[in-house]
Every structure is written in C-alpha cells, then in structure tokens.
Description:
Elements: H1 2-8, H2 10-28, H3 33-57, H4 59-64, H5 71-74, H6 79-98, H7 102-120, H8 127-148, H9 153-176, H10 178-181, H11 189-192, H12 195-212, H13 217-220, H14 224-246, H15 251-273
Helix pairs in contact: 2-3, 2-8, 2-15, 3-6, 3-7, 3-8, 6-7, 7-8, 8-9, 9-12, 9-15, 12-14, 14-15
Amino acid sequence: MKAIWDLLRLEHGIMYGVAVIIGIIVSSGTLDFNKAILGFLTAVFCQASSFALNDYLDYEVDLKNKRMDRPLVRGDLRREHALILAVALAPFGFLSAYLISLQAFLFALAITILGYVYDLKLKEFGVVGNVYIAFTMSAPFIFGGIITGGINVQVVVLSLLAFLSGLGREIMKGIEDVEGDALRDVKSVARVKGVEFAYKLSATLIALAVLLSPLPLIHYGVNLFYIIPVAIADVIFIKTVKSLLKRDKDIRWLRKETLLAMLFGLLGFLLGAI
C-alpha cells in the first residue's frame, strides 16, 4: 500500500483537491458539496495518473539519482504497474470533471495532457518544465473558479502565491537531480546557469511569495484563521531561504520543508476562505 501511495504521491493529489475546494469557496462565497467532491476527485485521479507516468518514464534517471523515495527504484513495484495505473486512473478524473460541466472537463483534460507532454518532452527543457509544474500548483485554484464560473481577484492572488513558491521548489528539484538530468540532457536552471545561480533564484522566488502572502488579507480582513497558519508557513519558508543562500542543508530536506510550509499555507487559504 505504501508503495502505491509513494508512486501516486497521493499527498500531493489531496493537497490539489483541497486547493480546488478553496478555489470554489473563494470564487463563489459558498460551497456546493457535490461539485466540491467531484472537483476533489478530479484533482486526485488526474494528478495520480501523471505521477505514475512520470515515474515510469524517469526510471533510469531516478536510478542514477538514487531516488530511494521512488517505489520503482526500491523494487517495490514493477515499471509496468506504474504504466497500468497511469492509464487506468485518468478516466476516473475525466469522468468526475465531466459530471461537473463541459468547461471543467475540458480544463482537466487539457491540464492532464500537458502533464503527459511534460513527462514525455517538456521536462527536457528545464525552465519550461519548471514553469509548467508551478502552474499545475496554481491551477487547482483556477479550476475551482471554473467550476463555479467565477474566477476573481482572490483566486488569482492565491494562484500567484502557489505559483511562486512552487516554482522555487521546482528549481530546487533541478539542483537535487542535476546528475541524473545529464543523462537526458535536461536543461534545468542548475545545469544551464549553474547550481549557485539556481540556489539564489529558488531563494528569491520563495522570498517573493512570503512578501506577497499578506495580500489575501485585503479580501479576508484581519482574519486570524488565515494569519496564523500562513505566518507559520512564512517562518518555514524564511528558514528555507536562509539555508538556500548559505547552502547549509541537504536539498532534499529543504524540499520537504517547503512541502510542509505549503501545507500550512494551504490550511490558511482554506480557513481564511471559510
């Protein structure tokens, strides 16, 4: 069970699903439970499919990078299992989106196809791939707005914060994978501009997200349910920025820190919206 969870990165899918629900609430001011559940399932199934395909295609690179967090590298699952799951899960996500609306279905289909294109080719173009992954972190909020038919300024602001922190985190991944990326000639920031530049750029993007994090208060007002979790997220992010600039911690550990910060940020977005 753990191997399947790790392959599908279900914690990411759940976070994306929660972000969809936040987008629904922020864009409409209310929560349609049926649409929220379907939107949540769309995010989980489509993301799980994309992650499974990613691990199937990246098997050799992950071996080179000694990614023991990957179940295929550990030998817990065979490569064909990943491909089967990638093909089998996507239709459930598309069906969930179709049951919401045609617009939701088309958006989910487009994002998932882009995910497959990323796995197959975009990843080789480094920065373009980083931008795409960062976009997918902001897309759930937009998807929530599409579900309700109302993308407003608040949705855009939350999407921007997710995009900036996500892009910083993806550039960190390029630092982590710099040796394995050479096998596929992936033109990541770390390989094209150098590891030192990548560290500084990642720190800058995350710091910018921290600086902009008070913006939602324009809509929420002085809302402690938003302020407290986001303040915790900002503290973690600031620690990460300092470590990136000093290069005094393992990059994999720093990526885990940023994921924790994102969880707190997401909690703040959710509580603030409610």
